[in-house]
Amino acid sequence: MYKFRKLLILCLAIAFITGTFSEYSAKAKTNTAVNCKLLCSTALKATGGIKKLKYTSASAIDFGGLSASVRKKVKEIRYICDSKEVYSLCVIRTKDTKDSAKVLSALKKYKKNNCNSDYLSDYSATEKKVFKNAVCGKKGTYVWYIAMSPKKAKNDKGQKSIKKRL
């Protein structure tokens, strides 16, 4: 009976330790598997717009589509753009899914404001199409804005690649 108890305690201890390590490693994999930089890279490959982009930022204040109150909801961001901020790609991870809905709403307003703004008179017809055919989306805690092409189908390709990666 004593040997049986000892064996049972040993088996339970091994099961507990194994479960703890496997849970820890699963969390570590999910935390490092996807991030904003990786999702930007995925979308850039899908849209083929890498040559146009010159600037990159990991600061929410650098992306003009976010107000101060919305920036507080950002946990991580990657913003890449050209010198005129026409061709751009922004992927944001929020603190929770409620925040992602609010950030998506802000991005949609940003797109609408860009399409109807007086300052577009300074841009070429192609650049205006880039603004008008930009796409916004969200999945889970991730939100994105893709304005990489005057063709909406290319921007959609970038969006599909992000969704697939998530």
Outline the structure in words.
Helices cover 54% and strands 17% of the residues. It has helices spanning 2-33, 36-47, 68-71, 97-115, 125-132, 152-165, and strands at residues 55-57, 74-81, 88-94, 135-139, 142-147. It has a five-stranded antiparallel beta sheet, with helices on both faces. Strand 4 (135-139) and strand 5 (142-147) form a beta hairpin. It is elongated and about 90 Å long.
Helix count equals 6
Quickly give the structural class: alpha+beta
How are the strands ordered across the major sheet?
Answer: 1-2-3-5-4
Approximately how much helix is present in the residues? 40-55%
Radius of gyration: 22 Å
Features:
single chain; 166 residues; alpha+beta; 5-stranded antiparallel beta sheet; elongated
Helix-strand blueprint:
Layout: H1 2-33, H2 36-47, E1 55-57, H3 68-71, E2 74-81, E3 88-94, H4 97-115, H5 125-132, E4 135-139, E5 142-147, H6 152-165
Antiparallel strand pairs: 1-2, 2-3, 3-5, 4-5
Helix pairs in contact: 2-6
In a nutshell, what does this entry contain?
This protein has 166 residues and is α+β, with helices and mostly antiparallel strands.
